[in-house]
Amino acid sequence: MRLKDKIVLITGGYTGIGKAIANRCLEEGAKVVVNGLREEKAEQFLQGRSKEHIATYTADITEAGVPESLIDFAIAQFGRLDVLVNNAALISSSNIKSTDLDFLRNMLEINTVAPFAMIRAALPHLAESKGNVLNIGSINSWSGEPDLLAYSISKGALMTLSRNLGDSLFRDYGVRVNQINPGWVLTDNEKINQREQGMKDDWFRELPDLFAPSRRILEPAEIAAGAAYLISDECGPISAQVLELEQFPMIGRNLPKRWEGFLK
């Protein structure tokens, strides 16, 4: 029970990685406040659960005043705040031709500015509890795919935010800030996205080892396991760090031998 009696706020927590983190936090003894955009998803998340340790708040965190209202709600529900998990994000394909300025600004607003606003709103309470922040980024933070240009820019900015605040907030307030960069994760939304791009229903069962050496991609629960460590007291003074959760290295990756002739 690494998170016993901790109060954890998770944005974008009704589905996918956020939901897996919420589930892991509950298993580890925490009380959770979960945010998302759609009330029907909140109802699905709450179905069959005791509300003694869970509260939901459906709102768009990019709207003015919502970060502050969400923090106030968490304090009103459970009396304090120990952990903020910034998981809410927009994933959308774009390249240099299709990324106009409005699209880029919207991507940055959701994936970078909103987490910053959440941290600002939460800081007084996290400073009081000597709590911490966990930002959920992406391996695309490092450069990204050609058709994930705006998304990659926003996640790269988030990574710099995590490293910068992980140093300054820990020194000045005792608040740790870390980030997880997940690789390819098999969320329900990813299954839908791939089907919409023409893949068959069970596309994830026949992956080439070029993209997945294990012949499978990560499960949301595997990301949540890393999150549980980083937000727990067991993590000690670790701050300003980025944990890459992927099955191959971001730098110096060894391609399968069958590609060697192609690359010569």
Automatic annotation (TrEMBL):
Pfam families the UniProt entry points to: adh_short
TM annotation in the entry: none
Highest rank taxon of the organism: Bacteria
Annotated InterPro entries: NAD(P)-bd_dom_sf (IPR036291), Sc_DH/Rdtase_CS (IPR020904), SDR_fam (IPR002347)
Family the UniProt entry places it in: Belongs to the short-chain dehydrogenases/reductases (SDR) family.
Protein name from the UniProt record: SDR family oxidoreductase
Native species: Poritiphilus flavus
